[in-house]
Design goal:
homodimer, MgtE N-terminal fold, CBS-domain, Tetracycline Repressor, domain 2, three-stranded mixed β-sheet, 22 helices, 6% strand, elongated, SLC41_membr_dom (chains A, B), metal ion binding (chains A, B), transmembrane helix (chains A, B)
């Protein structure tokens, strides 16, 4: 188990210029941890450490560095060294890198790539952001249907070196149309002279280059895949997406949902690496929208000034009432939004969800208002009518909040909007208005204000 | 691309009892889609359809069925058929199934398993929930260090049939201590006579049976693994976790966080399959806690009755003020909670986070209160002091909300509590109290109430 890295020991080797020893130590570590170590170093030392890496390992480590460090290293190595790295990088890693780097650096990188690599990278850079094309890799193993298992294994042994994954092989015809899929397991478990044609799986899952990367990741989760073929509009195989990239996509998409559901514009970088102004920019817009809606709620409240001027005590229950309504509503909307994100709930379930939320909200509403009523009767003896007003309003608020909260995300989806915006913040604002209207209408009736 | 399933055609084959045709059609489909199809059928037909499946496929499909359907099918097949399925299931799938089934059914399943399988299943059932042991599988390929590449490939070809993944092989000694890891890629790219010892990777990542499954999933994301070895406290290899199970864990853990952050007790089953009473039970507890905290806020508000009795208009700004504070706070807490969940933020970043949130909140606060001030001056001419009161309170509220929102999740973690509870609902309730105190203190000063 090698999760622990002795940063001190390694740092010491650098400061004492003991590069031979360092080279040995690093060569024993895996690329992720080496990258973590290099990130910790002051930039100039980072380059020194990077230079000590054996040729094969350098590119793997490079792919795991932050774009800032990548940029610095590119700036401090010569074209020859750069060329080696670019050629060794998997195309999808190279593309991820170039998308982050300033144009001038990108130019230099492409200048030092072979024409083929350059053509491939340029092609990849053209796929829309968040598309299958943008996360696929071109390093896959392709076979022909008339090969034997023996041929296939020979072919893999010959070409496997620079393939990101060799475990699923793709059978294509002369026009590169994808005919079938063969796993290395199939190959190993078949006779040498058996023909690929006979063991290939012809009803495989595939996606097109323009497919949304989130949908691609869902296919991995649904079918337990290690890789998925990406074809162009004519069914020609152009690349594959590997499970490790799908895992990253799942994590990023979940993070984006968390951010949207908290009324923020999702940010590109991790929190600690995002600037103060960007963070502020991402948050202000929605807060403004919600604040203005909040003003509307305020003006509704204004209509009842007479009521709470006559009975100021009523005001003291407003926070409890609106907060509980908001919380009850966002519980429901959260479950539905997440349910849709993982494809457990679809738009056709609208009625089922509302019916379920209606029943749940009744149970919850009764429990909460009962507790509330008892507590008020105890703390404010002689004010049973006020206690009843609060209890009744609370019940109605919870029921409306949960029904709305469950329905709005699905309705948003029906209108092709992102369900995630129908989360806590917006639901709370909407429910506030309802709860206050209910509260004071009940008050006016029961307390004759 | 076979994501489309012709349910109608297949259903027709069943109603017309055309089982031969059905068998052919199903055999062409993959297990996930067959399971989806069977789930759609009325239970009795589900068994009929299931029975038509070829022996090999039956277990794979069975593993993909819901526990309800599994239970029904087990109830309607004979012990012999059951025995076949149990033996064909991968141990981890069998265990997942048994954890859902009623004791009586579990007994019958175990009765029909071979002694070895039964022992293995029982052992797996003893690992704590959410531990690496509970999601690992016992079907892995083990090699010895003195084997040659040729031996190893032969070994895989002989035993690979019932291995869940053959792509990463584990090198163990006579005491089953894990010495190293060899990928099939390594094997294929090495000479036949080369010894395993020389190509195996000895600094591999491994986990113990009791490791939290969420930590295991993180290792997959961090190191781009296809499988990870699970060892007991003596370093003996007892099983492996495969990436497809890690993907499921990631999805479930994210869902749990969404639920916790919306003040709910995470539910075992998907929303649509969860009963009304369970849903209500999962939601009431937190709503009660928050409602009672809301009452405290109310009593704070009570102290200022004189103030808003004298100037009822002040009340109309309360919802806007408290909601904006709540939203601003939960934006910050959400980013920090998620940041910690994906290990981008750790407890040592507390000060960095607070300093960042302080600066962000200043920017956001200035923007919001400026807009608010202008709007109030326009709508309520002559009430500049009230406008100023609201604007100043809003600024202070946003700053406090964001600083608290950013800090509390980390502080919770410091006290070994789950950061996810410091999300929107609790933050809102806490911020409410602060914002109201600020609001009315400022009002009393500026408006001499």
């Amino acid at each position: 188990m090698e999760n622990f890295i002795d940063f001190e020991k390694l740092g010491e080797l650098i400061s004492t210029r003991n590069y031979r020893e360092l080279r040995v130590k690093l060569a024993e570590m895996n690329e992720v941890n080496i990258a973590l170590f290099i990130e910790e170093l002051p930039v100039e030392k980072a380059t020194v450490a990077f230079r000590t890496l054996p040729k094969g390992l350098a590119a793997d480590v490079f792919a795991n560095l932050s774009s800032d460090t990548q940029e610095y290293i590119i700036g401090s190595i010569n074209d020859q060294e750069l060329a080696v790295i670019v050629e060794d990088l998997f195309v999808d890693d190279a593309v991820d890198m170039l998308e982050e780097l300033p144009a001038s650096v990108v130019k230099r990188v492409l200048k030092n790539a072979t024409p083929d690599t350059r053509a491939l990278i340029n092609q990849f850079l053209q796929y829309p952001e968040n598309s299958a094309g943008s996360i696929m890799t071109a390093e896959f193993t392709d076979l022909r249907r008339n090969m034997t298992v023996e041929d296939a294994i020979k072919h893999i042994r010959r070409t496997g070196e620079d393939r990101e994954t060799v475990y699923t092989c793709y059978v294509i015809d002369d026009r590169r149309i994808l005919d079938g899929v063969v796993t290395v397991k199939d190959l190993l478990l078949s006779e040498d002279d058996c023909s690929i044609e006979n063991i290939m799986n012809t009803n495989f899952v595939s996606v097109t280059t323009l497919e949304d990367r989130e949908e691609v990741a869902k296919l991995f989760a649904k079918y337990d895949l290690l890789s998925i073929p990406v074809v162009d509009h004519e069914g020609r195989l152009v690349g594959i997406v590997t499970v490790d990239d799908a895992v990253d996509v799942m994590e990023q998409e979940a993070t984006e949902d968390f951010e949207k559901m908290a009324a923020m514009i999702p940010s590109e970088k991790p929190y600690l690496k995002t600037g103060v102004f960007v963070l502020a920019k991402n948050r202000i817009m929605w807060l403004l929208v919600l604040m203005i809606s909040g003003m509307i709620t305020g003006s509704i409240l204004g209509k009842y000034e007479a009521a709470f001027a006559a009975m100021p005590m009523l005001v003291t229950f407003i926070p409890m009432l609106t907060d509980t309504g908001g919380n009850a509503g966002s519980q429901s909307s959260t479950l539905v939004i997440r349910g849709m994100a993982v494809s457990e709930i679809s738009t056709k379930d609208l009625v089922a969800v509302m019916w379920k939320e209606l029943r749940v909200s009744m149970l919850v509403g009764i429990a909460l208002s009962a507790v509330n009523f008892v507590r008020l009767v105890i703390t404010y003896p002689g004010n049973e009518l006020i206690a009843l007003t609060v209890a009744l309003s609370l019940f109605a608020t919870v029921v409306i909040a949960k029904t709305i909260g469950g329905a709005l995300p699905i309705i948003a989806k029906l209108f092709k909007a992102d369900p995630a915006i129908m989360a806590a913040p917006l639901i709370t604002t909407i429910v506030d208005a309802f709860s206050l209207i209910i509260y004071f209408s009940v008050a006016e009736k029961l307390l004759h204000l």
